[in-house]
Structures are given as structure tokens and as C-alpha cells.
């Protein structure tokens, strides 16, 4: 494996800036890595070789001319296939959008292109971001680089697997109920869900508009800070975008890496640990708390009693919003169109045939559930009640943050499970998000970082939550814990992963 693919994004950026490495060399190294291992991983749905190398050549020329460039200019990146990208296929993991080429870029893609990051391609995902295992992609499973028989998490398993397999130093994911953080936990990568509105949603194919949020997927906390600062900021095209500047996240990460958390109160959420959590997950969590205490943090216990209703509320709010958002996929304007073979060809019958053929089982399940929850006679009993629970969860967070600067928990209750293990039991699958969902309901930022390896040889994730607009706290505490963990484990957690067998 090329040393270039082993570097963090920050390290690679430093070599590019100094002129020791060209962007073409770095981009080609990652494209070669994709060619070597993605046959086994299937992280990518589309690899944009020509476009990535063209961007890399442009950045090398601009750097040689002495142009002042973004710190990440020339560092390759992978994009989750739910993000609209002009000129590149964008499918949201669904057959109903197979072959669709968007005519415009999402705002975050505009920022990535303006900064000069070569886009390696689009990554696999659960269809329309509905899933926790990437088993619901219409284009096949993505495999976990730690164990190819296990899931990489979901819905953003492709982005997490690409970063974990050293196919990309950076990736973009989206998080509606944990779809950045949970894949991060089971693949040994860092995943961040920013404060809701902190990164523009313009150009994201929406599942649940009040919950969706794009964010970084990386191998280090500092890399996430660099990417988060790049894609964040106000966007007038997104009505939910925060009208304020991006906080200085890179400085927070660098301060945290010094290892001093004196005066920081870390709240352990009692409802997000204990029964139902794998023994190895609980053991690594306890070890991480001791590392934070050793860095000077004060560990306090906090209770959020309404969190026990979060999963139920989420699985009413999310499908309700999804059923509305997915109504646009009707076979009339873009994407797949299926014409009935028999009988009259009416708009209604074309819509029914297109959706029947184009949507997978999980998408259909959630559309049916959401439509029912919003129907006359049930709206107040289901959707309305779920929104009231959402308010109670937000109040729980407010009370908890009055006692602590950040809240922590395991990111996921278990390590990566095997393919098919929970596929026929949707409720068991949904429980993977029990610790991540509350943050989306409240709109607060969250981070997952790898905090060790369980007894089964698979990575474990540690979740940090902060108040809305206090994303910098995630990076300070996360970087401090990352530094302590590297001392404990003798290097990055991802270094514990077995080496993949290459195709050539």
C-alpha cells in the first residue's frame, strides 16, 4: 500500500503544500487503492477517475504558480451518493434514480470544488439513507474492511468503509439518526454530525428534512475539523441554515490534542449505557472515561429520562417526513419510469408501476408507516404525539447541559454484526441507532471516534454530544481522548485492523 494512502488528510495536505507530493500523485495513489481493494469492499458506486485527475492537475498548476490555496486543496475526497453532484451519477442507492445525472451541485459540493479537492467518486449507501447496515442499497452490500462478512454500518457505510480501507482520506456522509456516527463506530473511523443548520442541506436528497445533516467522515479528529470548517456556513438557499460563521474547529482540535481537559465537565448519560450494550463496548467506554478523567475532566452522571421514548418518536417523525419527501419520485420528471405492460397508460398507473419497481422493501415499509401516521384521524395520535416527545427530549438535553459541558455514551450498542443477522427483523435493526437518535431529534452536534477494539477484534465507538452551536467542544474533547487512546493502544485504532488482500 502506498504511504500516501496511509497519511491523514492533514499530513497529506502538509506534503502537498511543501511540494514534496503532487495532487496528481496523491489522487492516483488513492485511485490505485480503490482499484486494488474495492472489488472486495464495494464502497464506491461510481469512481470519477478522469474528473479527479483533472482537478488534481489544476491544483498542481495553481500551486506551482504561487496561488494562495485552501489548506485541503489537492486532498482527494469521496462523496456519499445522496449528495447531488453535477455531471456525476447520483442515485441515493435506489433503482428509481439509476443513471440520473444532476444538472447542479449541492452547496457543500460547490465549496469542495472551489477549495480544489479532487472528488474520487460516489459511495454506496442504504436506499434513500434508510438503514443501519448498507444492506438496503439497490446496488449490493458494502463490506466492513475489518471483516468482509460484516456490515459497515449505515446508511453511510460506503463513505465509512472507503475511509477505513484507505481508499479516501476524507469523505462526506449524512446523518439523520446516526448514519455518520454509527458507521464510524463499526469501522474505526471518526464521524461528525454538525449542529442542525450548520452545514447547508441544499442539494441533499432529503429523507427527513428536520433531521438530515451532512458532515465529515475521516480517520482523525483534526481531519474532521478541517473538512467541517470547509463545508460549514450560512447558505441563503437553505431556509434552515444558521446565519452565522463557522466556529474555529481546527484550533479547538489542536488545543484538545495537547491533552488538558481541566475544568471540562463530562456527563455520562445513564439511559445510554448498561443493559443491551455488548460487554466489550461497555469495557472500552469505561476505559475512555478514565482517560478523560486523567486528562483533567470532571466526570458526572446525568439522567435524560425521556430518551427511552426517542426511538419510538424518531420512527414516527422520520417516516412521516420521508413519505412526503419521496412523493416527488413519480416517474414523471426524472429517474426511472415504468409503463404498465397491460391496460391503460395513465399517470396514476405509471406512478404505481414506477414506485413498485424502483423502491426497495425498506423504503416502501417506511413510506407506508409515514403515510399512515400522517393520515386523517391518526395525525395527532402519532405524528403530533411524537413531536411532543421530541420537545421533552430537547428539554432533557437542556437540563443535562446545565450540569455538563459535553455528554458521552457508546456510539452503538454492539460492534459490527454479520450480513443478514438482522435483515429480517426491522426492530432489531432500528435498535442500532438507540444512542445516536436523540441528537438528531434535538438538532445538537455529535461525534463518534474509535476508542478501542472489543474482544471480538472489531472496533468500538465513543460518542460525544455538545449543545447546539457548540461544535467546537466536540473537537476539543474528541482530540484529547484520541491522543490518550493512541498512547494506550500504541497508535491509531485503525492500525489494529487486519490488512486487506489486494486484487492484484
From TrEMBL:
**Superkingdom of the organism of origin:** Bacteria
A GO BP entry is:
translation
Residue limits of the Amidase domain? 25-474
Might you give the EC number(s) for this enzyme?
A: 6.3.5.7
Under Gene Ontology molecular function, one entry of this record is: transferase activity
- Top class in the EC scheme: ligase
Give the CC-aspect GO terms.
glutamyl-tRNA(Gln) amidotransferase complex
Q: Where is the active site?
A: 80 (charge relay system), 155 (charge relay system), 179 (acyl-ester intermediate)
Q: Where is the signal peptide?
A: none
Q: Which UniProt keywords apply?
A: ATP-binding, Ligase, Nucleotide-binding, Protein biosynthesis, Transferase
Q: Which reaction does it catalyse?
A: L-glutamyl-tRNA(Gln) + L-glutamine + ATP + H2O = L-glutaminyl-tRNA(Gln) + L-glutamate + ADP + phosphate + H(+)
> Which Pfam families does this UniProt record tie to the protein?
Amidase (PF01425)
Recorded hits in HAMAP family, A to Z, give: GatA (MF_00120)
Which NCBIfam families does this UniProt record tie to the protein?
Answer: gatA (TIGR00132)
Role of this protein: Allows the formation of correctly charged Gln-tRNA(Gln) through the transamidation of misacylated Glu-tRNA(Gln) in organisms which lack glutaminyl-tRNA synthetase. The reaction takes place in the presence of glutamine and ATP through an activated gamma-phospho-Glu-tRNA(Gln).
Give the protein family. Belongs to the amidase family. GatA subfamily.
Q: How does it assemble?
A: Heterotrimer of A, B and C subunits.
- Name of the protein described by the UniProt record: Glutamyl-tRNA(Gln) amidotransferase subunit A
Amino acid at each position: 500500500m502506498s504511504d500516501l494512502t496511509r497519511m491523514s488528510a492533514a499530513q497529506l495536505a502538509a506534503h502537498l503544500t511543501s511540494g514534496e507530493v503532487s495532487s496528481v500523485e496523491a489522487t492516483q495513489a488513492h485511485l490505485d487503492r480503490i482499484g486494488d481493494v474495492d472489488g472486495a469492499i464495494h464502497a464506491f458506486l461510481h469512481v470519477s477517475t478522469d474528473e479527479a485527475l483533472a482537478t488534481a492537475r489544476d491544483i498542481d498548476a495553481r500551486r506551482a504558480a504561487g496561488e494562495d490555496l485552501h489548506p485541503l486543496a489537492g486532498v482527494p475526497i469521496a462523496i456519499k451518493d445522496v449528495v447531488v453532484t453535477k455531471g456525476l451519477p447520483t442515485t441515493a442507492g435506489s433503482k428509481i434514480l439509476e443513471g440520473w445525472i444532476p444538472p447542479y451541485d449541492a452547496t457543500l459540493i460547490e465549496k469542495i470544488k472551489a477549495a480544489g479537492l479532487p472528488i474520487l467518486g460516489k459511495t454506496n449507501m442504504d436506499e434513500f439513507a434508510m438503514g443501519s447496515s448498507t444492506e438496503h442499497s439497490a446496488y449490493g452490500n458494502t463490506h466492513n474492511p475489518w471483516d468482509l462478512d460484516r456490515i459497515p454500518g449505515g446508511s453511510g457505510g460506503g463513505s465509512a468503509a472507503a475511509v477505513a480501507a484507505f481508499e479516501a482520506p476524507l469523505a462526506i456522509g449524512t446523518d439523520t439518526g446516526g448514519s455518520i456516527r454509527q458507521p464510524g463506530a463499526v469501522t474505526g473511523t471518526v464521524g461528525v454530525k454538525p449542529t442542525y443548520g450548520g452545514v447547508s442541506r441544499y442539494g441533499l436528497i432529503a429523507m427527513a428534512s428536520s433531521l438530515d445533516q451532512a458532515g465529515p467522515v475521516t480517520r482523525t479528529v483534526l481531519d474532521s475539523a478541517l473538512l467541517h470548517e470547509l463545508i460549514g456556513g450560512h447558505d441563503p438557499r437553505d431556509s434552515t441554515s444558521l446565519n452565522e460563521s463557522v466556529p474555529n474547529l481546527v484550533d479547538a482540535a489542536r488545543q484538545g490534542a495537547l491533552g488538558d481537559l481541566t475544568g471540562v465537565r463530562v456527563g455520562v448519560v445513564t439511559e445510554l449505557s448498561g443493559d443491551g450494550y455488548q460487554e466489550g463496548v461497555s469495557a472500552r467506554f469505561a476505559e475512555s472515561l478514565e482517560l478523560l478523567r486523567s486528562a483533567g475532566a470532571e466526570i458526572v452522571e446525568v439522567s435524560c429520562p425521556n430518551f427511552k421514548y426517542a426511538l419510538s418518536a424518531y420512527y414516527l417523525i422520520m417516516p412521516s417526513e420521508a413519505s412526503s419527501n419521496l412523493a416527488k419520485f413519480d416517474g414523471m420528471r426524472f429517474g426511472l419510469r415504468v409503463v404498465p405492460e397491460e391496460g391503460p397508460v395513465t399517470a396514476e398507473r405509471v406512478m404505481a408501476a414506477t414506485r413498485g419497481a424502483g423502491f426497495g422493501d425498506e423504503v416502501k415499509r417506511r413510506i407506508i408507516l409515514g403515510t399512515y401516521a400522517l393520515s386523517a384521524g391518526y395525525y395527532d395520535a402519532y405524528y403530533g404525539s411524537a413531536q411532543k416527545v421530541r420537545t421533552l427530549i430537547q428539554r432533557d438535553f437542556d437540563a443535562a447541559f446545565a450540569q455538563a459541558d459535553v455528554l458521552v455514551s457508546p456510539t452503538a450498542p454492539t460492534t459490527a454484526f454479520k450480513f443478514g443477522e438482522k435483515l429480517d427483523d426491522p426492530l432489531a435493526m432500528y435498535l442500532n441507532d438507540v444512542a445516536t437518535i436523540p441528537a438528531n431529534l434535538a438538532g445538537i452536534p455529535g461525534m463518534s471516534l474509535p476508542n478501542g477494539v472489543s474482544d471480538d477484534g472489531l472496533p468500538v465507538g465513543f460518542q460525544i454530544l455538545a449543545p447546539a452551536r457548540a461544535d467546537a467542544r466536540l473537537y476539543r474533547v474528541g482530540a484529547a481522548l484520541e491522543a490518550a487512546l493512541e498512547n494506550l493502544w500504541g497508535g491509531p485504532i485503525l492500525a489494529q485492523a487486519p490488512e486487506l488482500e489486494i486484487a492484484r
